[in-house]
Specification:
Blueprint: H1 2-10, H2 12-18, H3 23-63, H4 68-74, H5 77-97, H6 102-137, H7 146-170, H8 174-183, H9 185-191, H10 193-207, E1 216-219, E2 224-231, E3 235-240, E4 245-249, H11 252-255, E5 259-260, H12 262-266, E6 270-278, H13 288-294, H14 298-317, H15 333-347, E7 358-361, E8 369-377, H16 382-399
Antiparallel strand pairs: 1-2, 1-5, 2-3, 3-4, 6-8, 7-8
Helix pairs in contact: 2-3, 3-4, 3-5, 4-6, 5-6, 6-7, 14-15
């Protein structure tokens, strides 16, 4: 093969020399002819191999059951490999064509070698991209930061390629290059600070399972509130619920605090935790007539009978003077309302009764007494969750007047003030 190539590029110079064109002119004309022939042959070789490789890969992809070869086709791996074969041919032919041009032979040989290295890296990248897309089709790997791992590998390969290119251009040994890099490591660390931090963060995020693709996260510092769509070496991309995209530095995931809602989505309910403020001066004891009236409310009628019987027995046993309502034990409108809301929540079809269900009183505030609902909706979808919560509080607002309680509201107009 080598002798055939030599014959192909050695016929022109003797023929031009016989025409008495001079040795120098004959050499340059022969060089131009050989370059033209090399370009034509390389292009023909590229077309042939591109057709063969692309067609072969398409046929294999259609017949095979795996999706990996389909992804190789979509990422044009065969097309880039077809570029590589003519380049190798050119690399072998350069010393023959430029045999009499030692200076240019060295330069063009280095340029072709560098191009081969860069093209090889590009081919590796297309293979890794195909592997990434293939793994994301598998549910086991769909939520893993595969992009980060591929980027780390590609960075290492680019570093080795850079060392090779520099050593090739300046004729420096690889050992000397690595020694030089060691001497300027502080500068390298400064330049690649974000990349190094991103790499360390990506590893920690993956090993600690802090966030996955598809997780709903809230990151107040960056205004992110939505689903994670991409995790790579430098950034985590979040598609917010308003369809905007927030980009978060990967190392911020371990240096700052964020909220991951995965636990809620994987659980059996979504928490409802909201309160209303009850005016303190509307809370009072209930007399017998009021209790009889409130027995008409089905959810608390049985409770009133049981509770009142218990209270009466206690008061009689302790000979409590009930001429004044404050003496002994009594029921309050607020306590009875809390019991009513608890019973209402227990009968609500949208709540998970196997999880915590509370209607509780919180620490009093200057605005009133907080009455908090703490429970879990069985439907975790955003729109249904909001509907269930609104339905509960609609009922609370509408029913509170039956217990002669008032909700605190800031004065908002003349009708809210009383003239003295």
């Amino acid at each position: 093969m080598h002798k055939l190539v030599e014959k192909l590029f050695s016929w022109c110079y003797p023929m031009l020399k016989k025409l008495d064109l001079g040795e120098t002119l004959s050499a340059y004309l022969s060089l131009l002819v050989n370059i033209f022939i090399l370009a034509i042959l390389s292009y023909i070789m590229y077309l042939i191999f591109r057709y063969i490789l692309v067609r072969a890969m398409i046929v294999i992809a259609r017949k095979s059951k795996t999706k990996f070869d389909d992804l190789l086709v979509s990422n044009k791996t065969a097309k880039y490999i077809a570029h590589l074969i003519p380049l190798l041919f050119i690399y072998k032919c350069v010393p023959i064509i430029l045999e009499n041009f030692v200076y240019w032979e060295s330069i063009f040989g280095k340029l072709v070698a560098i191009y081969i290295v860069l093209l090889s890296l590009w081919i590796i990248k297309t293979i890794f991209n195909s592997l990434r897309d293939y793994l994301k089709l598998n549910p086991k790997f769909s939520d893993k930061p595969i992009d980060s791992y591929i980027q780390v590998i590609m960075i290492m390969l680019w570093i080795f390629a850079f060392v090779y290119v520099i050593s090739k251009i300046f004729d420096i040994t690889t050992t000397a290059m690595l020694g030089t890099f060691g001497a300027i490591s502080a500068v390298i660390i400064l330049i690649f600070r974000d990349t190094i931090l991103g790499f360390v963060a990506s590893v920690q995020v993956s090993l600690n399972d802090m966030v996955r693709i598809g997780d709903w996260i809230t990151f107040d510092k960056f205004g992110a509130d939505g689903d994670v769509i991409e995790i790579n070496l430098a950034t985590v991309k979040v598609r917010n619920f308003d369809n905007t995209t927030t980009t978060i530095p990967t190392y911020s995931m371990i240096s700052d605090s964020f909220r991951n809602w995965r636990g809620m989505l994987n659980s059996h309910g979504r928490r409802i935790k909201r309160h209303i403020l009850i005016k303190a001066n509307s809370i009072r004891f209930l007399n017998e007539d009021e209790l009889q009236e409130l027995k008409k409310i089905h959810l608390v009628s049985q409770y009133i009978d049981l509770r009142q019987n218990e209270i009466d027995n206690f008061n009689k046993a302790n000979k409590v003077d009930k001429s004044i309502l404050i003496n002994g034990r009594n029921m309050t409108n607020f306590g009875l309302f809390r019991k009513y809301i608890t019973q209402y929540l227990l009968q609500h079809p949208g709540l998970n009764k196997n999880m915590i269900l509370l209607c509780r009183q919180l620490q009093p505030t200057p605005q009133g007494i907080p009455l908090e609902i703490y429970t879990f909706s069985s439907d975790k979808r955003f729109e249904n969750y909001e509907y269930i919560m609104a339905d509960i509080f609609d009922h609370i607002f509408a029913s509170i007047s039956y217990f002669d309680l008032e909700i605190y509201e800031m004065p908002s107009g003349k009708s809210d003030f009383v003239e003295l």
